[in-house]
Structure formats: structure tokens, C-alpha cells
């Protein structure tokens, strides 16, 4: 028995399809029309100079079967995206939150993924009535107030996806709807998007049977959508993409390569194991990245790195808007 | 370019390792010792004739990388397992709930996977205090009371897993700890366990890079653990396994094949699309399966099929215990 590696990648670049072909060959999600109408309404309801950010958050799934029992998933609870959405709201942004269903959501994120579940926050009061435990009442009350305030002000719109295909259709739809607002729109692409997929037409119709030994999955590379996003869908917007790696040797070169290849504004680079207290902000103009980091003790005390990251991005976005006005004048 | 199917399975049966080899080649989960101690304590605290059920619930993941960014997941929110655990408790069972982290849990299940999140259940009262919304107070109160009652009576023990490997180590550990109680223990194996995995030693160390085109994943078949479970780990217990299919043509023959091959007591067969209102109960003794089904209108009104399924299994389990006592006498 030969010791071939179980994970291998071939070099057949002919199979990397272009983004348009992807949309021709895959079915749109059922909420696409709803999302179109809601985003159009949301954008229209904002003041003319309102800064808007599209935050993408959570991982995409890639089904292995048309009647889906199994799928490939990307690691992401949605921590970065949901925390960042809160920070953008606090800084006055209107936020379109394009997130994986069941991933963390702004304000709710502090409670929804507790291993104890919702009931652990409740107790019977002495009069027998059901109450929030006193130790949670202040924090939950503040989160509820914030959530209701931003919702009532129409500053937060939630749109959800599950599969890679859902995500890509929704990303294109939202991009085209906000593109006309130009520089005042930021894209904050924090979702963990699959790099590989199995095209719908060559997927197994039913649950893959296990009686016959090994399983070989041949997956195609997902076309890079950052290219058409930057060039065609939303060329005037301020676009921030993310690079997550586990090998530190690759991080800087991959971030710079992405900026050069796609020509967008910012790449946030981060390592899987340190991403909660250290990120690097790469731009085309600066030779060295800006480091943003917090103490692990601050993190433990409830200070998210997204507070610093989003503040810095908002500052750069403001500058970008001003420069666009000057060059337009 | 040849049109080879993207999902294919070879017939190299030599690579199906035996279960013992699996445990030799994979690392145990970090909670294994904790689980051992807790299950031993839990079992010891029960009355001598207490019926006990091990409910497994939720899907297992199979990492594609040692520094995990991507993994293959099995579809399962844990609905069947968490609902069944409640029914077993109501019928007087002590329940060990071996579940996927973040999957649905008994009593909490009605609230934890709401797309709106926890805050949607709360509101400010007229005096400004934080309250459960009146329309939820009764139901949540009943669920909290039930959860606290069973916990206080030491009738519900929660043990969690994430990966396939975690699950298999914990299943073996728990099985060996409860096996000595014999017929009074039921195994209710509702978890959706992966059929394929990538051995740790042949996994990619870092995030798989996507620059080189296609990705080919070669996965080994997971050894069938029902065999050693029935024969060696817990030979006297009442064992119920599940068969989920999407192709109706396969369901009956696969259920009967499993009973013949492993020699356990019951296979519950169900179809992905109808599993919430129809299941079939196969045994070795009966030629035709018993059909358990509910009206979809009952389901909508909050009647879970697990009420009927678990009641029927408890009845058969009772008979099994009696027969074992007779043959022992």
C-alpha cells in the first residue's frame, strides 16, 4: 500500500471557472428576492451622506450531495463579524449584516453560543415569576436597548446565508444595490468563504454510500469573486478583505499579493491562533503593515480588538471619502 | 478534459482499519477523563433498578487540516436526540446526553436555535425592568422547571463532542462504564456519525492552499463501531441504532442488513425529508417494520414524533429487561 498523502491538489487550472459561469450553473437562494427588496428599501431610507458598511460574517458550507446530508464547512463562529457590526453601529454606520444562519449576531452574540443554553440565564423569583438572573440583568438590558435602538432607527439589516452559493448570489446582489452610493460604502468581508466546491451538476444525487471503501472527493476551485467585486460590481467603494492563515510564513506575502492582484483598499491579515488580539492592516501605499493589537488581559476583561480595528478602518474610510470628494470637485 | 464524476468511491477495502487501530492512531478528546469520572459518578448515584439511556445526538465533524480551518460536517441540528432525551426523562429514565457542542439540548432546544436570538424573548417592563415577554413566560418557565428538576434529581448528564474522534472515544468510554448494568441500559444512537475521515497523520498540517487548482480529498472509511459496541463493549444492553437515507429504495434493505450484521435489538429507519413525522422500527424478529407516524398538523401543534417513538421503545425495553430476568432466573 503506497503512502500517498490523503490531501493533495492538482494543477489543472483549466477547471477554474469564471464568476459569471458560476452564477449560470448554480441556483440562487430562496431569500434572494427578499434580500434585494429589503436592501433596496434599507439603502433608500438612509440620509444622503450616511456611511454604510456591508459586513459579511460566518463560514459558508459546500454540500457534497444534492439531497444534503454531508457538507464541507469553514471554521467561523462569526465572532469577528458580529463584534465589528456593533462597533460600526456605535460609530454611526448603517450596517448590512450578511451572515451565516445560526452564526453569532450583534448584541445577541454574548448569549447565543453559551454551552449552557438560554435557560441558564433565567431563574424563578421569590414570588414564582420568571426572571433574568440579577447578575445578567444590566448587561442584557444594555444589549437589548442597543439592538432595539438600531433596529428602530433602521440602522441594522440582517440577511442570512448557509451555502457558498447562497453567499455568492447575495454578495453580488447587495454589491450592485449599494455600488451607486460610491465611496461612502465600505465592504468588510470577514466571512470565511470556501475555496473549493463541487458543482451542482456533478454532485451525488443521494447520500454517498460507505459500503465500497475509500471516498475520493474531487473539488473545483471557487472562482475569486474579489476580482469582479472590485472591478465591476462596486468599483468606487472602500473594500476591506481578510486573510486568515495558520502558517505565519505565508501571511504577509499573501496579503500583499491580494492587494496587488485585486487593487482594493485594505487587507486585514490574521493568524488562526492569535486573531483575537493581533491583526495586521495592509494597504497598497504602505510598505509595512499597521499592527493592531490588544493585551490578552484586555480581551479577558471584555475589550474586543474589533473596537480598535473598526475605529482605524472608519478613520481611513473617512479620508477615502474626502479624497474622492476632492478628486470629484 | 474528461467528465469524471466529482464524487467517486473506490473499492480498496484493505484501507478499512479495525476499531482498535483507530483508537491507537488518534488522540482522545480533552474531556475524556472528566467524562469518565462524571459518568461513573452519575451511574453510581442511581437506584439499582434505574433504567438508563445513553442518547447520542448531533453530527460529528471530520477536520481536513491539523490546524483546523476546514472540516466535513454531517447534517444534524440534534432535534431527534434532544427531543427524545426529554421523553426519556418524562418516562423515568436517567439520561446521559452525548451531544455535539452547540447542537440542540433538551429543554433549551426551543430557544437556542431561534434565528432572532435570545434578546428577542426579552422586553422592558413599564417600570424599566428587564422581563421575559409575557407570551413566552409560561412555556419557558415550564422548561426551566423541568430542566432544574431533572438536574437536581441527577437524572440528566450532559457530555459534549465536536469531532468524529471525540465522539468515538467518548462512546467507547461511556459504553464500558454502563455495560455492567446490562439489560436496564438502552443505547439510543441518534447522532449523525461521519462515514469517512482523514487519518491525523496524513492530514495537511496547515490550511490547504487554493492557488494550485483542484483539490482532491482522499478519505478513509470509518470503521463500523456498532460491531464492537454490540459484541464487546456492551453485549447485554438494549441497543437502538438509526438509519437515515434520502433514497427510499435503500432504506428497508439497509436497516435489515444492519440488524443481521450486528445482531442488536432495533434499527429506526427514517428519510431525510419525512423524518419529523414518519419513522420505521425494524427488529430481527418481525418481518415487517412497525410504522410510527404523526400528522403534520400535530407536529405543527407541538407534538413531536419522539413522544410516540420513545414510548414504543421504552415498552420494548421493558419487555427486554423482563425476558433477561426470566432467562437469568
What string, H for helix and E for strand, traces the elements of chain A in order? EHHEEEHEHEEHEHEEEHEHEEEHH
Q: Whole-Å distance between the termini of chain A? A: 70 Å
CATH level 4 superfamily of chain A: CoaB-like
Strand order of the largest sheet of chain A: 8-5-2-9-12-13-14-15
- For the record, what CATH class of chain A applies? Alpha Beta
Based on CA atoms alone, the radius of gyration of chain A comes out at: 21 Å
Mean pLDDT of chain A: 89
Number of structurally distinct domains of chain A? 1
Unreliable runs of chain A, pLDDT <50, ≥5 residues? 1-14
How large a portion of the residues of chain A is in β-strands, by DSSP E?
15-25%
Number of strands of chain A: 15
Secondary structure: helix percent of chain A: 25-40%
Write the layout of secondary structure elements.
The structure is a homodimer of 329-residue chains.
Chain A: E1 7-9, H1 19-25, H2 32-44, E2 52-57, E3 61-63, E4 70-74, H3 79-90, E5 94-100, H4 109-112, E6 122-124, E7 130-132, H5 134-152, E8 156-161, H6 164-178, E9 185-189, E10 196-197, E11 215-221, H7 226-233, E12 238-245, H8 248-262, E13 266-271, E14 278-282, E15 290-293, H9 296-300, H10 305-328
Parallel strand pairs in A: 2-5, 2-9, 5-8, 9-12, 12-13
Antiparallel strand pairs in A: 3-4, 6-7, 10-11, 13-14, 14-15
Helix pairs in contact in A: 2-6, 3-10
